[in-house]
Amino acid sequence: MSTEKIADEIKFAYWVPNVSGGLVTSTIEQRTSWDYEYNKKLAQTAENNGFEYALSQVRYEASYGAEFQHESTSFSLALLLATERLKVIAAVHPGLWQPAVLAKLGATADHLSNGRFAVNVVSGWFKDEFTHLGEPWLEHDERYRRSAEFLQVLRKIWTEDDVDFRGDFYRIHDFTLKPKPLNTPERPNPELFQGGNSSAARVNGGRYADWYFSNGKDFDGVTEQLDDLRTHAREAKRETKFGLNGFIIARDTEKEARDTLREIIEKANKPAVEGFKGAVQQAGNSTGDKKGMWADSSFEDLVQYNDGFRTQLIGTPEQVAQRIVAYRQLGVDLILGGFLHFQEEIEYFGANVLPLVRELEAQQEPVLEPARA
C-alpha cells in the first residue's frame, strides 16, 4: 500500500484551545477561551459542522503568550465524553510519558469513547519544559529515534500479548494489556500521529504512524514532504495519511480576510514571537539537512506558531475551498484548522466553505494510484 489515494474526501480537524492566548501571538481580539465549558460547546459545534477530528495541544508551563494550559490527555477524554462522533487527538511528549502507561490510558479512553481517542507524538520543542522537570533534553535526531520506539511500543501493546521490546530508550518485558482497545472494523485501534517536518519525522511517519502532521506549507513544501513520506511508507509496505496545518481566515470578501491577516501581524506580541522563534528554530537548524520544523520560518510566519499562514487558507469561502481542494489533489488527507474566533468561525466554515469543498471534490477526476512495475 502507498499514500497516493487514502480517501475520496479531505477531512477536517481543529486545534483545541486548551491553552490560553489563542492561536496567534498577537494583541488582536481573539474570541476564544481555554476553559472547559467553552471547549465542550466548541467540540459539539465542530462535530455538527463537518469536523471529524480535534487536536488537544500540549504545554506544561507558561511560555510565549500562553499563560495557562490544560493537560492534553485528560482534556481530550473530557471532550470525548461530551461528544458523539468527534475523534480527539491528544498531543504527548515521549520523554515525559512511559509508552506502556500511555497505552493503558489510551485503551481506557478508547473504551469510554467507543473508539475515538488518538495520539499525536510531539518529539519535543521547548527545551525548558524538559530541563525544568529534571528530564534530559536529547538532540533532534535522538528525540525522533525515541519517538520511533515510542510509536512501536504503543502499537505492539495495543495489538499483541506478551510484548517484548528491547530498544535504546524503552524496555518492555512479557507485558500484556487487558483490555486492549476495541479494534473493530468501524473503530480500529487508536490512530497514531507523528508531528514534524524534518527528514527524521518523515521516516517515523512512513514507517510507524497512521498519520503525519505537517506545519503550514505551500504547495511546493507539501509536495516535497509527501514524496519523502510516500517513499518511506512504500519501503515499509504500509500507508500513512498526511495532515496539514492551516490558519483559516474565511470572510465574505478577500479584502476583509487580508485586512484581518494584516491586523494580526501588525499587532503581534513581538517579544513573545521573538522568544518563541529563538526557542524553536534551533530544532530545525540542528538537523543535517536543515529540514526541521521552523527552520526557515519568518517572524510573520511565527505569529501563528505552527506556520499556519503559510498554507494561505485566506480569502472568500470560494477561494479557501479552491485552495483546500488543490491541496487534496496533491495528496493532503486532512486540514488542521486554526481560527481567530473559534465558535463563530467554525460555524461559518461549516456553512460556507465545507459545502463548496464537497462540490469541488465531486467535480474532480479521481486521484488514481499509479501502476507498479
CATH architectural designation: Alpha-Beta Barrel
Give the end-to-end Cα distance, rounded to a whole number of Å. Answer: 14 Å
Rg for CA atoms: 20 Å
Q: What is the helical fraction, as a range of percent?
A: 40-55%
Write structural notes for this entry:
The protein has 373 residues and is α/β, with parallel strands linked by helices. It has a single domain (11-363), classed as Luciferase-like domain (TIM Barrel, Alpha-Beta Barrel), CATH 3.20.20. It has twelve helices and twelve strands. The protein has helices spanning 36-47, 72-81, 99-112, 127-131, 140-159, 199-208, 219-235, 254-266, 270-285, 299-302, 317-330, 342-363; strands at 11-16, 53-56, 87-92, 117-121, 163-166, 171-175, 192-195, 211-214, 241-247, 249-250, 314-315, 334-338. Mean pLDDT is 91; it is low at 1-6 and 367-373.
Q: What is this structure's SSE topology?
A:
Layout: E1 11-16, H1 36-47, E2 53-56, H2 72-81, E3 87-92, H3 99-112, E4 117-121, H4 127-131, H5 140-159, E5 163-166, E6 171-175, E7 192-195, H6 199-208, E8 211-214, H7 219-235, E9 241-247, E10 249-250, H8 254-266, H9 270-285, H10 299-302, E11 314-315, H11 317-330, E12 334-338, H12 342-363
Helix pairs in contact: 1-12, 3-5, 5-6, 6-7, 11-12
